[in-house]
Every structure is written in C-alpha cells, then in structure tokens.
Specification:
This protein has no helices and seven strands. With 122 residues, the protein is an all-beta fold.
Amino acid sequence: MAGKTEFFIPDCFYPNMQRAGDEYISHEAICILNPSETDVTVDITLFFEDREPMTGFITRCPAFRTHHIRMDRLKSVSGKGVPQGVPYAARVRLSSPAICQYSRCDTTQPNLSFMSAIAYSD
C-alpha cells in the first residue's frame, strides 16, 4: 500500500495578522490522501520552542478520499485551537498508511504567498 503512518512537518506558522479587507485569510492545511479501503484516523501533535507539546488533535480521512485539515479551524479534544503567531512543528500519525502534504497561504503582505510540500516520513 502506498503511504506511511507517521509524518513530520518542522516549519509551521499560523500568522496572527490579517490585511484589512482581504478576501483571503492566512491559513495552513495538512492534507491527507487516503487511497485505501479503510478509513484513517489522523492524530496530530504540535511541538513548540518554549512550551510543552499540544496533543489531542484528532480527525478522520475516509477511504478513497482526501481530507484538507485547515489548521485555523482545527480544535483539540479539549477545545483548544492552534496558537497564532507562534512557530511550531507537527507530527502526524495515521492509523493506516496514507500520504501527507503541508500547505501554507500567507496573506500578511500585499503579494500573498503560497507554499506546499510533502511532509517528511522515514
């Protein structure tokens, strides 16, 4: 089966500022592609430079589907969201092999920027 069960994204950042009147908002997304016949549970842990990790970000990606996990909308099981304006890293653990991609859209400057990369997996 294609894919892995653990991925790492070392350079995450959700900006805490937004240009006034902009129709696009800055955001990040962890995208899962599940090419298998089995639903995948996605468990995300966030790591920081100056605080303990945040855990409990759990969602699902159905079989033969994609799931775009918007980090600005994601809540942990305790109701906490991803902090803004703080660099962090993410570990993504999957219950079955799948593919993981990370994307960031930054609208804090006049020319918005977009970055995307396949997450690291060993």
